[in-house]
Design a protein that fits this description.
It contains nine helices and five strands; from the N terminus they run E-H-E-H-E-H-E-H-E-H-H-H-H-H. It has 220 residues and is of the alpha/beta class. The protein has two domains: 118 residues, Rossmann fold; 90 residues, no CATH class. The protein is globular.
């Protein structure tokens, strides 16, 4: 049975209604949550668990996005951040892109909507979880045969779940468990558990697989 198209969840931290209107137009189809301060963004992360954060520098209540960037990354290190500003100087832009709690991109105002759309797509598919998987795979290659089997299984599971996210967010059909199991070379039970993990973490919405909380019990 067909479902509505499922897209990623984006948290937009911006206090300008005109900018929000532009973003809503450019990012039509994504699930958008909009807040006007960094303080609200920190609270929203725990509730919405976004896949991407778009962070403006000048915010409501005199807050600065650049000052909240490390806090947001500390709260959700796996979530890519696109920093947007017309006020940051070159040195500040570089600071936003450097270090362990940095943004992935900095875009200048006025924002080119086509550039924003391309940047969002790359951030969602290649940054965040995609980078984590690549880093783990690189470490396993460096370790060669000394990595333990559970470690390898964890990396394989995370890689498989990343591919499931990319497939299911752009599809209009509910997942075919048997087909996915064949594609990944695993059991149906494994695929169902992957879907359970992704839904529990908020990386896929429940409506994409309504039976997610029941099916695994009946699988052998």
């Amino acid at each position: 049975m067909a479902t509505e198209e499922i897209m990623a969840s984006i948290l937009i931290v911006e206090d300008d209604p005109k900018q929000l209107k532009l973003y809503s137009k450019a990012l039509r189809g994504y699930r958008l949550t909009c807040v006007s301060t960094g303080s609200s963004a920190l609270k929203s992360i725990a509730e919405t668990r976004p896949d991407l954060i778009i962070l403006d520098n000048i915010l409501d209540a005199g807050e600065k996005g650049l000052e909240f960037l490390p806090k947001l990354k500390a709260a959700a290190a796996h979530v890519p951040v696109i920093m947007i500003s017309g006020t940051l100087q070159i040195r500040e832009q570089l600071a936003a892109l450097q270090g362990p709690r940095s943004a992935h991109y900095v875009l200048q105002k006025p924002v080119d909507l086509d550039e924003l759309d391309r940047t969002v797509e790359i951030a969602l598919t290649e940054c965040g979880l995609g980078e984590t998987v690549a880093a783990l795979q690189s470490l396993e290659r460096a370790e060669k045969f000394s990595a333990t089997e559970p470690d390898r299984r964890f990396t394989e599971r995370l890689s498989r779940q990343h591919e499931l996210i990319k497939r299911l967010r752009t599809g209009k059909e509910r997942p075919n468990i048997s087909e996915l199991a064949r594609d990944f070379g695993v059991s149906r039970k494994t695929v169902i558990r992957d879907l359970q993990d992704l839904i529990q973490r908020g990386q896929l919405p429940e409506e994409i697989y309504p039976d997610w909380n029941q099916d695994a019990a009946g699988e052998e």
